[in-house]
């Protein structure tokens, strides 16, 4: 068989595989966020089963297609020898990226942690936590590898995801006004009405998804050229809707994502004049959203619950003037950076922003020192709940984290390495901390509400290091492809998630979206195309 014919058949095989994977990506990024059955009563189970069924179906289709094609179309019926198989495995391993090796290592550590755990069944299924045991983690890893290899980042995929995001956000906005247009909250006790929203559920999980939509829409809006005004308008409208929904979600976790997005995106955007202009528009739009919500709060003050950012803005009498000033400055920046011979901006824009980041970090460290060590917490008034790091910080997260680290410190050496078992955080704390938990808050905690501490306790140092290596190497790899705005949109969406992960939990509601989006971003780095 000629080399040209072999290459043609290989391309045909890849083309069919890519179609299967592309349909799978649409299901996870565009359908999964909208799936529900008995409203909030079983929303985590429904989304879990939807993802598992879609993922297992993907694996079966790809395996069946590959086996069938090799059986019916291969030219040679000769069986491979053991040495040939080993050679192919070795060749495949050399061809894998560092990120692929890290996800394999992460799955391997998860498996070892499961088999050495005192709670094998619970570690395998994760049924004592958020269903993120060995089974779901393995599916995450395999699908991450499949999408990274066979996925193809296309503009229409992100456009479709943003359309789904609009639906989720608009539903969340109606929940803010307590309209409950689909009857999700009919059987929820009044004390928990504000804890659930849209088709995502818990407001913290809703904030994860909406933050990613905000990041993707903002980066694509700013990077889109003037020759496609309709598409640019679509991204802008989506960005404004997502910003509104993010604030109306009533979760303080949103501010971590906003810090990541507005704080780090200039490192990419300020390389270009269009990036500086677009960033100024995004900031002014965000300030306008806060002002608009403030006015709505005044009109519907008996119906809605005040947003923290709006509460702060309402205490500033000149806030409308500040918003107007933002738009004036935006116009001045647009005029000063009007298109000339080159769109590349002066590096001093980035240097100035890096200096500002350093100043802010120093300021934050000083405030934390002044509040927690110097004992001047009273200076910060209502902001004490953010800067006073005690056991009550972050809705008792301070207590959970200190308890988790103490439990980890008491592990034998092998459990320090591979953990107590995936998603067994509650079991790890139960025996030692049950009396303290009940005395402290009357609650039993089954999650660390910090993805990194959760992995440290359940998967040990090896699992956490493999996960962190995967994150930072992925950031580095995607950053190298910063000329591709679609890769950058995914990168900043993931950064929003990774920042929020410091106070959030890993679960099958938003977890599948994160892992598939992650693999899709890396797939474009391999192909260098959209």
- Please identify the structural class as seen in this structure: mainly alpha
Helical amount among residues, as a percent range? Answer: over 70%
Unreliable stretches (pLDDT < 50, length at least 5) are: none
The general outline is: globular
Q: Tell me the number of strands.
A: 2
> If helices are DSSP runs of H or I spanning 4 or more residues, what is the number of helices?
22
Order of helices and strands: HHHHHHHEEHHHHHHHHHHHHHHH
Query: Overall pLDDT, averaged?
Result: 89
Distance between the termini: 32 Å
Major beta sheet summary: 2 strands, antiparallel
Strand order of the largest sheet: 1-2
Gyration radius, in Å: 25 Å
Strand proportion: under 5%
Describe this structure in words.
With 530 residues, the protein is mostly helical. Helices cover 71% and strands 1% of the residues. The protein has 22 helices and 2 strands. It has helices at 3-31, 43-73, 82-95, 98-116, 120-125, 134-150, 155-176, 203-223, 229-248, 254-264, 266-269, 273-299, 308-314, 319-336, 347-372, 384-387, 393-409, 413-418, 425-440, 451-479, 485-500, 511-527; strands at 196-197, 201-202. A two-stranded antiparallel ribbon has the order 1-2. Helix 4 (98-116) packs antiparallel against helix 6 (134-150) and helix 9 packs across helix 12. The model has no long low-confidence stretch (mean pLDDT 89).
């Amino acid at each position: 068989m000629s080399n040209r014919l072999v290459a043609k058949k290989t391309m045909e095989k890849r083309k069919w595989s890519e179609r299967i994977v592309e349909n799978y990506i649409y299901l996870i990024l565009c359908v999964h966020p909208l799936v529900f059955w008995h409203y909030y009563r079983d929303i985590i189970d429904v989304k879990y089963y939807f993802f598992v069924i879609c993922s297992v179906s993907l694996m079966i289709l790809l395996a069946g297609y590959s086996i069938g094609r090799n059986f019916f179309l291969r030219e040679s019926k000769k069986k491979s020898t053991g040495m040939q198989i080993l050679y192919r495995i070795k060749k495949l391993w050399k061809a894998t990226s560092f990120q692929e090796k890290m996800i394999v290592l992460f799955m391997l550590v998860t498996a070892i942690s499961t088999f050495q755990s005192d709670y094998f069944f619970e570690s395998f299924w994760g049924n004592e936590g958020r269903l993120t045991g060995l089974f779901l983690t393995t599916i995450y890893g395999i699908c991450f590898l499949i999408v990274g290899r066979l996925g193809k980042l296309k503009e229409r995929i992100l456009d479709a995801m943003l359309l789904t995001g609009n639906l989720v956000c608009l539903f969340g906005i109606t929940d803010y006004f307590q309209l409950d247009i689909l009857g999700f909250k009919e059987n929820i006790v009044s004390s928990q009405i504000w804890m659930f929203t849209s088709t995502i559920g818990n407001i913290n999980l809703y904030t994860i998804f909406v933050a990613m939509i905000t990041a993707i829409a903002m980066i694509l809006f700013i990077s889109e050229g003037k020759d496609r005004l309709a598409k640019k308008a679509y991204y802008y409208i989506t960005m404004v809707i997502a910003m509104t929904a993010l604030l109306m979600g009533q979760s303080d976790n949103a501010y971590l994502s906003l810090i990541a997005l507005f704080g780090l995106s200039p490192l990419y955007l300020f390389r270009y004049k269009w990036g500086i202009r677009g960033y100024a528009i995004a900031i002014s739009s965000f300030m306008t959203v806060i002002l608009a919500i403030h006015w709505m709060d005044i009109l519907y003050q008996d119906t809605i619950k005040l947003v923290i950012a709006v509460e702060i803005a309402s205490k500033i009498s000149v806030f409308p003037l500040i918003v107007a000033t933002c738009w004036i400055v935006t116009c001045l920046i647009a005029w000063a950076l009007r298109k000339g011979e080159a769109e590349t901006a002066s590096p001093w824009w980035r240097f100035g922003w890096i200096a500002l980041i350093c100043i802010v970090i120093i300021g934050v460290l000083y405030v934390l020192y002044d509040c927690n060590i110097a004992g001047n917490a009273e200076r910060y008034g209502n902001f004490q709940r953010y800067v006073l790091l005690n056991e009550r910080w972050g809705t008792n997260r301070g207590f959970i984290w200190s308890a988790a680290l103490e439990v980890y410190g008491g592990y034998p050496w092998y459990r320090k390495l591979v953990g107590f078992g995936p998603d067994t955080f509650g079991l790890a704390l139960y025996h030692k901390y049950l009396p303290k938990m009940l005395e402290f808050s009357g609650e039993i905690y089954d999650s660390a509400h910090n993805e990194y501490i959760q992995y440290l306790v359940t998967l040990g140092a090896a699992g956490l290091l493999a996960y962190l290596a995967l994150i930072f190497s992925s950031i580095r790899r995607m950053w190298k492809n910063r000329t591709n705005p679609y890769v950058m949109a995914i990168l900043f969406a993931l950064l929003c998630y990774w920042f929020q992960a410091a106070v959030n939990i890993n679960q099958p509601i938003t977890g599948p979206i994160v892992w598939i989006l992650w693999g899709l971003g890396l797939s474009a780095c391999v192909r260098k195309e959209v």
